[in-house]
Specification:
Layout: H1 4-7, E1 12-18, E2 22-29, E3 32-40, E4 50-59, E5 64-68, E6 75-78, H2 86-96, H3 104-109, H4 114-117, E7 123-130, E8 139-141, E9 146-147, E10 151-154, E11 159-162, H5 169-182, E12 188-191, H6 200-223, E13 228-231, H7 236-243, E14 249-254, H8 257-270, E15 278-280, H9 287-290, H10 293-301, E16 304-306, E17 312-317, E18 322-327, H11 337-342
Parallel strand pairs: 1-14, 11-12, 14-15
Antiparallel strand pairs: 1-2, 2-3, 4-5, 4-7, 4-13, 5-6, 7-8, 9-10, 10-12, 16-17, 17-18
Helix pairs in contact: 7-8
Length: 343
């Protein structure tokens, strides 16, 4: 007979509160708030967006170029952001999935000169890799990568790779074999960490979604006059569902009908087996109040956090750092000051 703890299954769900100005996504475990994601429409970033741009200036002395992508400032394209080999794509996504290292200098040294690659007035398809900061424009790469649930599509090279975070050699060989069998194109594919122990069916669904997405982007890029936004990175709801939502979650509840329909269409494309777990919240009571999340959020976002011991910590964010001050508060300890502070 199994012990009671072996039969217990934690209830996990995702609650979405969406308004025209702000979207909040809460993750609950046994009705307890564990994570919160907030996206304001006015502050939505450009990282991951794909643009059709026009080269406005080539700078041989800096081995870079400025590209007009339709934003307030021209984007910056380094020669090192022209990937020259499949290994460099693997290195890029290895870093994304938790590996260490950066080889920009080595890449630049093995590559041709920027003036031989780009000319003023030339149209290029680029993806934002780093947001603009102050007076600096966004940093872009001319090679596109599209992340899915289990795979990353790299349409510019023919290659099959596996995230470095999956370090079991037998599993790596199995995953490469599956991807090689289900691919029907000359694109590059890298298995993300989430692909660990997944089967042929999951990869086929993800591959079909990404392939259709890229073909649609390519057709739009061919028709659009530069500069133009060709593809916008997923909003916070779809991004959370793509990266975190799996069979362990019981349901997703969304209060906005338009966001619900958009999310349902997205789920049918990327995880059709789980799309039935997406629900529309129709009660008059605001959804975060219904689940008791407003009170939880208010406590979580305060700068002072009370501890069970009676002490507290005060968290203040500045431009350069986050300061955390430890206060003993109501806890006076017993013998040594050091032990009291640590407790």
């Amino acid at each position: 007979m199994l012990p009671l703890q072996g039969l217990y299954k934690m209830k996990k769900e995702i609650i979405v509160n969406a308004t025209p100005l702000e979207t909040r996504v809460a993750i609950l475990e046994d009705k307890t708030l564990t994570e919160i994601f907030i996206e304001r429409d006015s502050n939505r970033g450009t990282a991951g967006n794909i643009y059709k741009g026009r080269v406005t200036k080539v700078l041989p002395g800096m081995q870079s170029a400025f590209v007009d992508i339709g934003l307030e400032r021209d984007a910056f394209l380094y020669v090192s952001d022209h990937f020259s080999s499949a290994e460099e794509y693997e290195r890029l996504w290895g870093i994304e999935d938790g590996a260490n290292g950066n080889d920009n200098g080595g890449r630049a040294a093995r590559r041709g000169h920027i003036e031989d690659i780009l000319k003023e007035g030339q149209e290029v398809l680029v993806q934002v890799s780093k947001e603009s900061i102050a007076a600096k424009g966004a940093r872009v790469t001319s090679y596109v990568s599209l992340p899915g649930r289990f795979l990353v599509l790299m349409p510019s090279i023919e290659y099959t790779g596996v995230s470095r975070k999956i370090d079991n050699e037998r599993e790596r060989r199995r995953l490469k074999q599956i991807v090689s069998e289900v691919r029907r194109d000359n694109y590059g594919w890298i298995v993300r960490t989430e692909g660990l122990k997944k089967g042929r069916e999951e990869f086929e669904v993800d591959m079909n979604y990404l392939r259709n997405l890229w073909e649609d982007l390519r057709r739009r890029a061919e028709r659009a006059p530069a500069p133009a936004l060709i593809h916008r990175e997923l909003d916070v709801v779809c991004k959370v569902l793509r990266d975190l939502f799996n069979a362990e979650f019981d349901r997703v509840t969304i209060d906005s009908e338009s966001v619900y329909r958009q999310t349902l269409d997205f789920m049918k494309a990327v995880q059709p087996a789980l799309s039935r777990r997406v629900h529309h919240y129709k009660k008059e009571t605001p959804i975060f109040e219904e689940y008791g999340l407003e009170v939880e959020l208010e406590k979580a976002l305060k700068s002072r956090v009370w501890l069970k011991s009676g002490g507290s910590i005060v968290i203040n964010q500045t431009e350069a750092l986050v300061a955390i001050d430890v206060n003993t508060g109501k806890y006076v300890g017993k013998r040594r000051l050091e032990d009291t502070v640590l407790k």
